[in-house]
Amino acid sequence: xxxxxxxxxxxxxxxxxxxxxxxxxxxxxxxxxxxxxxxxxxxxxxxxxxxxxxxxxxxxxxxxxxxxxxxxxxxxxxxxxxxxxxxxxxxxxxxxxxxxxxxxxxxxxxxxxxxxxxxxxxxxxxxxxxxxxxxxxxxxxxxxxxxxxxxxxxxxxxxxxxxxxxxxxxxxxxxxxxxxxxxxxxxxxxxxxxxxxxxxxxxxxxxxxxxxxxxxxxxxxxxxxxxxxxxxxxxxxxxxxxxxxxxxxxxxxxxxxxxxxxxxxxxxxxxxxxxxxxxxxxxxxxxxxxxxxxxxxxxxxxxxxxxxxxxxxxxxxxxxxxxxxxxxxxxxxxxxxxxxxxxxxxxxxxxxxxxxxxxxxxxxxxxxxxxxxxxxxxxxxxxxxxxxxxxxxxxxxxxxxxxxxxxxxxxxxxxxxxxxxxxxxxxxxxxxx
Length: 433
Hints:
Distance between the termini: 77 Å
Mean pLDDT: 86
Number of strands: 34
Oligomer: single chain
Helix content: under 10%
Low-confidence stretches: 279-295
Strand content: over 45%
CATH architecture of the largest domain: 6 Propeller
Number of domains: 2
CATH superfamily of the largest domain: TolB, C-terminal domain
CATH class of the largest domain: Mainly Beta
CATH topology of the largest domain: Neuraminidase
């Protein structure tokens, strides 16, 4: 029997009809770039709006949807800011797959290799394919072990091996498509560290300790600015609550407030809040040979200007992280070297110190420097933080400290952004004056 084609008169003529989706439960079709019913929730749909995915409430008849709730946003780098979602479907497990296309400054002239292809499930966004022109078709075979995909600019249908259990897609040589991607975002620094993601400004702050300089990377524009803070080592610097120009910093042995507009090459004001004893704010003092003296450092807390010593006999204070769900604090003394766990209270008290990971006992050479925790409670031991709109990009600083009297060559000292690390984290907290 020959196929029969009927026009749906009620819909009429559309300028660009896309993304038809048949919903077996309601026996009706929806169409737009992405519009998919949410299982188990009447009149609730997942849709795309530009580079965002959101949920809406719609009865299928009214001219206006309601309760528009943003879920996440993608492609928020400066060179992809004009991208938009163009295609999306759910696999049988309920996992969403969606792809973007490059900007279209002139109708029909889409920027090439600017889009990406993502999956979304259980609050986690995973990037699988980058450098896409126009994401424009996806399907699975009945056995659910093959995945098919179209990038319009390539003019081909590509086949991938598919694992529905974890949402992985593989090329024909079994290479997982969500590859780790590492890109530099700074020039080399002597000791780049204390990296801090500020969610409010969508900016990254980090310091070059010996040069007493702070750096700001604006993720919306891709621009980096820097400023000189003082003449002593700058241990850390990040924003204070209530202002985008006021910062808390550790300068030498002092806690200070710093005024900086985030653009100028010099800060406008440095005000001392408190000063510790003979230790520096990041490690113990040095001997005449420049070596850190073991056991002479301390750990402090500063709350509304009140300074309290929380630990002493520390060699090199070099990493802090908190698991708020478990009310635990994690801490690194580089010279031990180990990760310690404490019980933590909102009053700032810490207790029940426990060594939870020892580098020497696990046959790991080197010394730990930096610490953060991801949304799954896993600890990352290096100078690293998570950032981006979905907190799924990883930012890492490095250093070019002389080894045996020789300064490492570039790219030592460079700051990087990592894509597709398979984890997400938390934004940095601001200091409350």
